[in-house]
Write a structure and sequence with these properties.
This protein is mostly helical and 209 residues long. The protein is built from nine helices and no strands.
């Protein structure tokens, strides 16, 4: 892997199946426990945004690498804004769960691994955000759909920020391999929860051809 574009291409290629299924219509079914309706969709989103805010805030608080700390702080601020925006649409709801993805992220302490995992998290989140946008488009709620499109724009910014950070923190090919492993680990953590949720609901996580 010689540059960040190739790194991202490798992450996508090595996790093609997982990312594809995380971007399928079944992802909302899994995230909402089979209750695809406005409030469950918003609650699942609040849980994820709150967890992201707290994850990246904690990373920033104990990060010694200046550029990484700044990147994590900026990402935490965006996720906090997302959480607060969606929480306003729910009457007093408090986040109830920490997604498996963030349990994985919170177990990482190395800057290189965190950077790789952040990239993996963004790629997975982009897929799920697309499904949320699609839900609100189908629900004839263009205002909320537009809101989540804006969140998607923030993810694009996060991807640019994280790829720039990757160049900064990876000193050699060994670092890039560790970052790649962490990126795939983040995607796999999200995918495992997707599979487990669907199986608990009696649904097949694989697409029916």
């Amino acid at each position: 892997m010689t540059d960040t574009a190739e790194f991202l291409e490798t992450v996508r290629a090595e996790n093609e199946t997982e990312l594809s299924r995380l971007g399928s219509s079944k992802s909302l079914y899994a995230d909402t426990g089979g209750k695809i309706d406005t409030e469950p969709v918003l609650r699942a989103t609040v849980d994820a945004e709150y967890a992201a805010w707290k994850t990246f805030e904690a990373w920033a608080d104990d990060e010694a690498h200046d550029a990484a700390r700044e990147a994590f702080e900026a990402t935490a601020a965006e996720e906090r804004a997302h959480y607060e925006t969606v929480a306003e649409k729910l009457d007093g709801y408090e986040p109830e769960t920490v997604p498996n993805l963030h349990e994985y992220l919170r177990g990482l302490e190395d800057t290189v691994e965190r950077t790789g995992a952040l990239l993996g998290r963004i790629l997975a989140s982009q897929r799920s955000k697309d499904q949320v946008v699609g839900y609100f488009v189908g629900d004839a709620d263009p205002q909320t759909a537009g809101l989540f499109r804006e969140f998607g724009d923030d993810l694009d910014d996060q991807l640019e920020r994280a790829t720039a950070l990757l160049e900064d923190v990876c000193a050699d090919e060994t670092d890039r391999e560790r970052a790649l492993e962490a990126a795939s680990g983040a995607i796999e953590a999200a995918y495992e929860e997707y599979v487990d949720s669907l199986e608990e609901l009696g649904a097949n996580p694989k697409p029916v051809c």
